[in-house]
Design brief:
By secondary structure, this protein is mostly helical. Helices cover 75% and strands 0% of the residues. The chain contains 8 helices and no strands. Residues 5-10 have low confidence and may be disordered.
Length: 168
């Protein structure tokens, strides 16, 4: 009986670290930077590729730069950029509301980012012109994504701060 009263008395006190500080500050910065980079990618690369002059050069059978994968790759990248931008916004809303689904959303975010990066790279290197222009930056991005997953997925699974902030 005495133990029950003691436990109830301290139930309202946080266990260990909690809140949006600590390493979660880096996650927040990363999400904002991702939103900025996706917006830049969308407006500087994805959307301009759909202008008729660019689209025709890459997707017209009579063009010397034609390849059947150009159309699907350009559409895939544009859709990914738009959806991932909205997903970042959704994650940030859940982040600041301290929703219990946030750790799962972050794991999905990092995993899907890696998977999409690999798929995009594999599609792009099938196009001779794009393969020739590849300077290794796509592979570096994939390696960075693997490292990011290796760091942040376990963090969101095991961190005391994440548990106390979002799950508890």
């Amino acid at each position: 009986m005495e133990t029950n009263v003691q436990e109830q008395k301290y139930d309202h006190l946080p266990l260990g670290v909690s809140g949006l500080g600590g390493w979660l500050i880096l996650v927040q910065i990363g999400l904002y930077l991702t939103m900025i980079l996706l917006t830049v990618q969308l407006f500087q690369h994805s959307l301009p590729a759909f202008r008729s002059d660019t689209w025709d050069v890459l997707t017209s059978l009579t063009s010397q730069y034609y390849h059947p994968l150009w159309g699907p790759v350009l559409i895939f990248e544009a859709i990914y950029n738009v959806l991932f931008l909205f997903f970042c916004i959704f994650i940030l809303i859940n982040f600041y509301r301290k929703k219990s689904t946030l750790p799962r959303l972050m794991i999905i975010f990092y995993s899907v980012s890696l998977i999409i990066g690999v798929i995009d790279y594999l599609l792009v290197i099938q196009i001779p012109l794009a393969s020739e222009l590849e300077d290794g930056s796509s592979l570096r991005d994939i390696v960075k994504s693997v490292i990011t997953c290796a760091i942040w997925i376990p963090y969101f699974m095991k961190s005391e701060r994440v548990h106390n902030t979002f799950i508890r």
